[in-house]
Amino acid sequence: MIEYEELRADIDRYLMERFKYRKSLVRLTADNIIATRRNSRVDLYLRIRRIESRFPPDCLIIARLGFSKERVGHGTHFVQFLTGVAKKYGFNYIGIECANDKSSALAKKLGFYSIDSENYAIATSNLISYFSME
After folding, report:
1. Domain coverage including residue 102
2. How buried is residue 41: exposed, middle or buried, by Cβ count under 10 Å (0-12/13-18/19+)?
3. What pLDDT shows up at residue 134?
4. Closest of 120, 84, 123 to residue 104, by C-alpha
5. How distant, in Å, are the alpha carbons of 6, 61, 65, 66 from that of 92?
6. Looking at the 3D structure of the chain, how many domains does it have?
7. What value does the CA radius of gyration of the chain take, rounded to a whole number of Å?
8. Reading across the β-sheet that carries 59-67, which strands appear in turn?
9. Is the dihedral of CA 18, 64, 129, 92 positive or negative?
10. DSSP of 42-105, one letter per residue?
11. What Gene3D superfamilies does UniProt report for this protein, alphabetically (predicted)?
12. Within 10 A of 15 (CB to CB), how many other CB atoms are there?
């Protein structure tokens, strides 16, 4: 659980720096979900899963990700940041749960594979390769 609190703090620092917040945005729930408090610029809901489910084991699952300003690279930048966090904490996959049209487009752009019609995953090693080629 301490590891997850450190993960929460890393995400919080990232969002505070990127979106110029002065107070903490991110909380960790008892069932290992990282979520942002209600605010106008960022909406994040991230599941931490070590066991296999619909997604592979050791997966950070983006259940909800939204930004007030769209199509300016915030989603790609966040996934790039999350890739580094996943590597740091030993997560081998990143998933996108219940993807809508926008998050499906992001998943396809970054090379995620489709688990079923609405869920996507990718090995962090593939994302590391993708971002190192940019």
Report:
1. 2-133
2. middle
3. 66
4. 120
5. 18, 11, 20, 23
6. 1
7. 14
8. 26-28, 33-36, 42-49, 59-67, 93-96, 120-123, 113-114
9. positive
10. EEEEEEEE-S-SSSPSSEEEEEEEEESS-SSSHHHHHHHHHHHHHHHHT--EEEE-S--HHHHH
11. 3.40.630.30
12. 21
Residue count of the chain: 134
Residue 84 tokens read as 């580094």
Q: Tens-of-pLDDT digits for all 134 residues of the chain?
A: 688 999 999 999 999 999 998 889 899 999 999 999 877 789 999 999 999 999 999 999 999 999 888 888 999 999 999 999 999 999 999 999 999 999 999 999 999 999 998 999 999 999 999 999 86
Structure confidence at residue 80 (pLDDT):
97
Q: State the CATH number of the domain containing residue 98.
A: 3.40.630.30
> What is the distance in angstroms between the CA of the first residue and the CA of the last residue of the chain?
34
Instruction: For residues 113 and 94, give the distance between their C-alpha atoms in angstroms, rounded to a whole number.
Output: 11
93: its two tokens: 């996959």
Lookup: tokens for 58: 């050791």
